[in-house]
From TrEMBL:
Pfam family, one: PTS_EIIC
Top-level taxon in the UniProt lineage: Bacteria
InterPro entries xrefs: Glu_permease_IIB, PTrfase_EIIB_Cys, PTS_EIIC, PTS_EIIC_1, PTS_IIB_1, PTS_Sugar-Specific_Components
Residue ranges, annotated region (Disordered): 487-511
Descriptive protein name: PTS transporter subunit EIIC
Alphabetical keyword list: Cell membrane, Kinase, Membrane, Phosphotransferase system, Sugar transport, Transferase, Transmembrane, Transmembrane helix, Transport
Residue intervals passing through the bilayer: 133-157, 163-184, 191-210, 222-239, 251-276, 296-319, 331-353, 365-386, 393-413, 439-464
Length: 511
């Protein structure tokens, strides 16, 4: 049974991350189980990577275990249940005092703080907060996007005319109120009362704002969109915190919510809606102008630089832009171009597989990670193959640039390709595709871009991804689970370890 399989996966992971007492918080995103750990040194990275269900591990502000879309949502509840069961089964007192849970947590907190300090710049922390606001919305965006695509297909085929209005309502309801959800998550992320953030953001989509004039023009329901909602909720959070400091406790329950909603609501109506509306319009205009006038070049740059942006954590800045474009135009024209980075990564991995015919370890990693790579989950290939090798990471970016240029070229000649939701990539993006010239042509252009990314990524890596010395050293007959270093064979130039974006030291390949 699937439940037994998911529970078995969770049971296999738990001891390898140090047991229940070492886990201080549990969460998950689209593909990763995210754990806060008291003591990072208790984790067995290699054993985790060897588990069949684990595609890779990433260390950032949390310890992230890549399980893939769908799987992570099923394994996480089982993992949480096992942690609770293990904690409840532990005796209330230990016969010997070795180290208390609080002491262990304190030590772990110090270790995490030291690691995070290396990589926690204010800008990156801000981007993480933005991502924390929008990432929880992705499942609804995907579900509604797919329903919208199905509905559009039925309308074009003139099938089930009695059902299509209902499907349109189902697909559009969430998008009509997305500002409320953004406001709720924003207040929660910035330390305010979530429902107050949602209440202030709801003003933006209230039909009655059409009777209000600001900056010499009538407001429109939805004006400012998700950016206005984000700004309104942040303002509400700061006003609420100010009120908590000055309002007497006996009056807090009445005065604080009233002042928070009133002041932030007035600023939203007579300032933020207009300003955020202008910014949102500018984003849509800029994206369309960029692809209409410099499509191939813009696609080349965006597709080629997306993997480095992901490595630096800067890709999170694009999430509000994608959401704004979807809200305005029904789809984001940027995501299909950025998805080409994954295609270049897949082509690169296949080339590595072909070139390193005798390295069973790397070939085993590629065989297990490629299916996820085709579906747009690139972390296993990035962290397990291309990035550690060095040169192949660059040639993977070349493949992404070529695929991006292909889609950008068609956008430049008027054939726009977009996605109705964010999150999926690779083949998983096909059900979410939309465009301005019909679904068939949109699918063909996106599929062509993937093919270009695969082919260019493959040939760029095959011919330029390895030096002669790398091929000699990496083509040794290495069994799965064993590496050249493990066998005591040093790299030719003994390069100095470099610190990656996640604070971990990596040994770059000789290039």
């Amino acid at each position: 049974m699937a439940t037994d399989k998911n529970r078995a996966t969770a049971a296999a992971i738990l001891p390898l991350v140090g047991g229940a007492q070492n886990v201080t918080s549990i969460a998950h995103c689209m593909t990763r189980l995210r754990l806060s750990l008291a003591d990072r040194s208790l984790v067995d990275d290699e054993a985790l990577k060897a588990l069949p269900a684990v595609m890779g591990v990433v260390e950032d502000d949390t310890y992230q275990i890549v399980l893939g879309p769908g799987t992570v949502a099923r394994v996480t509840p089982e993992f949480e249940a096992l942690v609770e069961e293990a904690r409840s089964a532990e005796p209330t007192a230990a016969p010997e005092h070795v180290l208390t849970a609080d002491e262990l947590a304190a030590q772990g907190a110090e270790i995490r703080a030291a690691r995070k300090a290396k990589n926690s710049t204010p800008f990156k922390l801000f981007l993480r907060r933005i991502a924390n606001i929008f990432v929880p919305l992705i499942p609804a965006l995907i579900g509604c996007g797919i329903i919208a695509g199905i509905n559009g297909l039925l309308i074009n085929l003139e099938w089930l005319p009695g059902i299509t209005p209902a499907l349109a309502a189902i697909a559009s309801g969430f998008m009509a109120l997305i500002a409320v959800f953004v406001g709720y998550n924003t207040a929660k992320e910035f330390g305010g009362t979530p429902i107050l953030g949602g209440a202030v953001a709801a003003i933006i989509v209230f039909p009655g704002v059409a009777n209000i004039e600001a900056f010499g023009q009538k407001l429109s329901p939805g004006q400012g969109g998700v950016l206005g909602a984000l700004g309104a909720a942040v303002l509400a959070t700061y006003i609420e915190k100010w009120c908590r400091r000055w309002v007497p406790e006996a009056l807090d329950v009445l005065v604080t919510p009233t002042i928070t909603v009133l002041l932030s609501g007035l600023v939203t109506i007579f300032g933020l809606m207009f300003l955020a509306g202008e910014v949102s319009t500018g984003i849509g205009t800029a994206a369309n102008w960029l692809l209409d006038n410099t499509g191939a070049f813009a696609g080349l740059v965006l597709g080629g630089l997306f993997l480095p942006l992901v490595m630096l954590g800067l890709h999170q800045a694009l999430i509000p832009i994608h959401t704004t474009l979807i809200e305005q135009q029904g789809f984001t024209v940027l995501l299909p171009i950025l998805a080409m980075a994954g295609a270049g990564q897949v082509g690169c991995a296949i080339a590595v597989y072909k070139r390193l015919k005798h390295n069973k370890s790397i070939r085993t990693t590629i065989k297990s990670a490629l299916p996820a790579g085709f579906l747009g989950v690139g972390e296993p290939l990035i962290y397990g193959v291309s990035l550690p090798l060095g040169r192949p990471f660059i040639t993977a970016c070349v493949g992404g640039a070529a695929g991006g240029a292909f889609i950008g070229f068609f956008s430049m000649i008027g054939e726009k390709v977009g996605s109705t939701a964010i999150g999926p990539s690779g083949w998983a993006l096909f059900p979410l595709l939309d465009g301005n010239k019909g679904l068939g042509l949109t699918i063909a252009i996106y599929g062509g871009g993937l093919l270009v990314g695969y082919v260019v990524g493959f040939f760029a890596t095959y011919f330029f991804g390895f030096s002669k010395q790398m091929l000699v050293d990496l083509n040794a007959d290495v069994d799965a689970g064993e590496s050249v270093v493990a066998r005591g064979e040093a790299a030719p130039s003994a390069p100095t370890p470099v610190e990656g974006d996640d604070g971990k030291e990596r040994q770059p390949a000789a290039v």
